């Protein structure tokens, strides 16, 4: 019996000793005067050459070490949408310190939970970014920006399997998980450079996201720099109407964005883009309507990728592997992917199962920090189970069939309904509350909260309390009063019926 396993193409093991930041900056060292980064608007640009970028990163590494941090220490990053974000991130990794990049939208309550979970040795805190009062050493912009001019530190070398950085993902249990990644994670991204981007050293890649989004950090910055290409980021506050003009004005060859950004950009005229080879999309499902509209307007294709915080992207379409309509794409060459049952046993081709990544994939996480049982629960046999259901054709094309759980998608972020419900279960006047994401129009989904109460409650008051407890992207956009929660005979919430109530 033929089973749904994709294991094609060799991928060289990560060399040792190894440092993630050194790998990212190695290509740029050969072209020190080339522009590595440009923060662009229609009227001006802030540029950084590879020499300037590397100096600031290694100076930051020196500053962190001089402040008393040591390799292996955890550094919480509470920074805004500025170049300080990638400089601090790579500076920490260069020194062997473990950065934790976080969304600037997190509230004091959410950050306090991270502090309790990870006990970082220090915090980098940008102006106007939420962070509760703490005894942990905290460094503000006047300090960490001064580090840019310090003498360069040496790269901390070591086992490529050692912890390099931590990112947070919304856990299905309702508790955000601290996902630990090894230095080797950057080495594994070469598979997506070929199997998704077709990235070259002469490319100019513009990513529409903010510096402090992990999709931007990887696809928009780390990967172009690893290739010695030029990365462009729109200035903070750039209007979607300006994006096509930025693509034209800066001769962008690859455009990367979430599907929602493409939808906004396509509301405006698209000028001739002779330098644009293709677009990239990730973060949420790209609809065929957006894909077709972009093809007609920009005369290029969008290549989509599927992934998650635990393994970045590993299924995609690419210029030399066009998408089979109705599918996610194929596993990237060098990956070991399967469709399995709940026990980790691969199922036959064209049969529904769970998308799974082999435990030996170099891009797979080390585990959930401080949550060993949660890590074990995600593995079955030799496979990491993603929780997404799909089928695989004999050619390796994967058709997405939905989540095996109730995870929501909010603007490219995966959000657990349990996390939102736990934060809001004591809202004033609410008897019961449950949340789910609902379709409000084609290609647009928003989080909605359903509640029972004695009387109709003021929606603005509920929204205000929610905003004080949750990052904006986790907050319900509407509060809907219902007579009773839909439940099965055993009292379990039937979340799928909430979607029907919203439409009814």
Q: Briefly note the structural class of the backbone.
A: alpha/beta
Mean pLDDT: 93
Q: Which strand order do you get reading across the main beta sheet? A: 3-2-11-10-12-13-14-15-16
CATH superfamily of the domain at 408-503: ANL, C-terminal domain
How much of the sequence lies in strands comes to 25-35%
Number of helices: 15
Q: Looking at the structure, what is the overall shape?
A: globular
If you compute it from the alpha carbons, what radius of gyration comes out, rounded to the nearest whole angstrom?
A: 23 Å
Molecular structure report:
Helix 10 links the parallel strand 12 and strand 13. The strands form 6 sheets. Strands 3-2-11-10-12-13-14-15-16 form a 9-stranded mixed sheet, with helices on both faces. 27% of the residues lie in helices and 27% in strands. It has a domain of 96 residues: GMP Synthetase, Chain A, domain 3. The chain has 15 helices and 27 strands. By secondary structure, it is an alpha/beta fold. It is globular and about 65 Å long.
Q: What is the topology?
A:
Elements: E1 5-7, H1 20-26, E2 35-40, E3 45-49, H2 50-66, E4 74-78, H3 84-94, E5 98-101, H4 108-118, E6 122-125, E7 138-139, H5 141-144, E8 163-169, E9 177-182, H6 185-188, H7 190-197, E10 204-207, H8 214-227, E11 230-234, H9 243-249, E12 254-257, H10 259-265, E13 278-281, H11 288-298, E14 301-308, E15 312-316, E16 330-331, E17 336-340, E18 353-358, E19 367-368, H12 372-377, E20 379-380, E21 383-392, E22 398-403, E23 408-410, E24 413-415, H13 417-424, E25 430-441, E26 444-453, H14 459-469, E27 478-481, H15 495-503
Parallel strand pairs: 2-11, 4-5, 4-6, 6-7, 10-11, 10-12, 12-13, 13-14, 26-27
Antiparallel strand pairs: 1-17, 2-3, 8-9, 9-19, 14-15, 15-16, 17-18, 18-21, 20-21, 21-22, 23-24, 25-26
Helix pairs in contact: 1-8, 2-3
């Amino acid at each position: 019996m033929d089973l749904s396993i994709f294991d094609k193409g060799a991928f060289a093991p990560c060399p040792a000793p190894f440092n993630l930041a050194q790998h990212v900056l190695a290509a740029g060292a050969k072209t020190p005067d080339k522009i590595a980064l440009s923060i662009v608007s229609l009227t001006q640009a802030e540029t950084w050459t590879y020499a300037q970028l590397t100096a600031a990163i290694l100076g930051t590494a020196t500053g962190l070490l001089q402040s008393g941090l040591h390799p292996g220490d955890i550094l919480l990053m509470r920074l805004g949408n500025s170049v300080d974000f990638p400089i601090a991130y790579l500076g920490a990794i260069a020194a062997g310190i473990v950065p934790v990049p976080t969304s600037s939208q997190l509230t004091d309550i959410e950050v306090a939970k991270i502090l309790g979970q990870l006990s970082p040795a220090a915090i980098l805190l940008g102006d106007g970014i939420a962070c509760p009062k703490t005894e942990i050493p905290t460094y503000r912009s006047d300090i960490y920006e001064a580090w840019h001019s310090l003498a360069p530190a040496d790269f901390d070398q070591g086992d490529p399997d050692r912890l390099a950085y931590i990112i947070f993902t919304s856990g299905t249990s309702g508790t955000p998980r601290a996902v630990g990644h090894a230095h080797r994670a950057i080495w594994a991204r070469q598979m997506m450079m070929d199997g998704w981007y077709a990235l070259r050293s002469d490319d100019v890649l513009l990513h529409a996201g903010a510096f402090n989004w992990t999709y931007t950090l990887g696809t928009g910055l780390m990967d172009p720099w690893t290739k010695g290409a030029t990365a462009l980021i729109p200035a903070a506050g750039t209007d979607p109407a300006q994006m096509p003009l930025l693509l034209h004005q800066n001769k962008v060859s690859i455009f990367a964005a979430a599907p929602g950004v493409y939808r906004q950009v396509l509301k405006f005229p698209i000028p001739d883009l002779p330098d644009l080879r293709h677009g990239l999309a990730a973060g949420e499902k790209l609809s065929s309507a957006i894909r077709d509209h972009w093809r007609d307007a920009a005369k290029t294709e969008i290549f989509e990728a599927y992934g998650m915080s635990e393994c970045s992207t590993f299924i995609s379409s690419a210029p030399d592997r066009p998408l089979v309509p109705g599918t996610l794409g194929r596993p990237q060459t060098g990956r070991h992917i399967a469709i399995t049952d709940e026990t980790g046993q691969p199922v036959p081709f064209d049969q529904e199962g769970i998308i799974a990544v082999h435990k030996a994939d170099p891009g797979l996480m080390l585990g959930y920090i401080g949550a060993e049982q949660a890590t074990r629960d995600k593995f079955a046999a030799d496979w990491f189970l993603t929780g997404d259901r799909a089928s695989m054709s004999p050619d390796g094309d994967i058709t997405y069939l939905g989540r095996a759980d109730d995870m929501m998608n909010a603007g490219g972020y995966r959000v657990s309904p349990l996390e939102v419900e736990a934060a809001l279960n004591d809202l004033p006047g609410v008897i019961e509350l449950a949340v789910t994401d609902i379709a409000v129009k084609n290609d647009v989904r928003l989080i909605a909260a359903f509640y029972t109460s004695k009387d109709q409650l003021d929606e603005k008051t509920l929204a205000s309390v929610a905003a004080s407890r949750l990052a904006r992207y986790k907050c319900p956009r509407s509060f809907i009063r219902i007579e009773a929660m839909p439940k099965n005979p055993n009292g379990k919430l039937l979340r799928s019926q909430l979607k029907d109530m919203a439409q009814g």
